[in-house]
Amino acid sequence: MEYSPVCHSLYALWSSPVKKKLILLSIMFLIWVYMLYSCVGYCSTMPSVVADGHRGKETGAAAGKRTESGGADLVSRLLAQPQPWEDVESDYEEPSVRTAASRDLLNDELEAERADEWDGMRADPRRAPEPSAMSSFSNGSGSKKLPQAIIIGVKKGGTRALLEFLRVHPDIRAVGAEPHFFDRNYENGLEWYRELMPKTLEGQITMEKTPSYFVTREAPSRIAAMSRDTKVIVVVRDPVTRAISDYTQTLSKKPDIPSFESLTFKNRTTGLIDTSWSAVQIGIYAKHLDNWLQYFPMEQILFVSGERLISDPAGELGRVQDFLGLKRIITDKHFYFNQTKGFPCLKKAEGSSKPHCLGKTKGRTHPNIDPEVVQRLRDFYRPFNMKFYQMTGHNFGWD
């Protein structure tokens, strides 16, 4: 039987022990490369881990093992998923102890919401949501920095709308969720806070928004300790309308709470306003601003009108972009007015080619409030509003 030259060469290779081992090693290496490639492809189809207390929480040991292995962390960084617009505006913590049972119930509800929101992020701050897949892609070669600008308030003033509008700007990168670092998580340290921030490139601005900072006594000194150059933005709104909106949000979560009227007054007969109720206290803007001016000059604080943010969003966004030292890229062409919701929406949201409005929790219908109660509240706020106008040099037209 005759062998071809090729067969003869193969036989010679196989008959040599050294060459035989080299061939086997080469085959094993190719198999290993193929398995590695298949594993990477499989991992890319896996859903990302969601930091949600209702879906199950990691124990400290489990979180530590996952961090040490680095596998899940690597996948989450490479495959960042787009985040929907978040409509959570966390409730301001009551400044004093309540004696009425109804108000204790409100406090219990607020604490439960805060625990749910932050359980996952306390276990592993790297699981904090990034702004969007587009932002993660563009910031792949960037670095995480402490924020140079912070939206500090006020609750129910329009802070969520402002943040989402600003995120359209290519030179702004912002955290979607509210970090609450300077009021609730300060003991975690600045590195913990920095890790929550999205990556930014040279020339981009890192931002976050937490509306309760404006009414938190320690927040100004803590932010100044981080950087006295931090620019702060306050979205303000007619304090009476803001209080009703605040109550409406709580009412949607707990329908059995007392009436707006009963919570507004310490005594309805005397007409004495209960300033310990957070819905009322937040609207005393002049009092809170006094605290901030001890640490930041007025030129480092920008006041955005919540009313103008609805009637002229491009105009207010122009002022914000100027304040941040950015080119006016966000203009009228980015907005359309949604008649159903009653406020402006983006024609194209960040990282998307589709129009998008804030979620169903925005634009709630307010309950009917006794006109006499509304008038008493207006009379109560009037001197504080006048003082606020003088301090800011701007008449917001609430009276």
In short:
The chain is α/β, with parallel strands linked by helices. Helix content is 45%, strand content 10%. The chain has a five-stranded parallel sheet. A two-stranded antiparallel sheet has the order 1-4.
Largest sheet: 5 strands, parallel
Q: What is the average of the pLDDT values?
A: 77
Strand content: 5-15%
Number of strands: 11
Helix content: 40-55%
Distance from first to last alpha carbon:
110 Å
Q: For the CA atoms, what is the radius of gyration?
A: 28 Å
Secondary-structure-derived class: alpha/beta
Regarding quaternary structure, what we see is: single chain
Strand line-up in the sheet with most strands: 3-5-2-6-9
> Helix count, per DSSP?
16
- Taken from the alpha-carbon principal axes, the silhouette is elongated
Give the helices and strands as they follow along the chain: HHHHHHEEHEHEEHEHHEEHHEHHEEH
- Point out poorly predicted stretches: 42-139
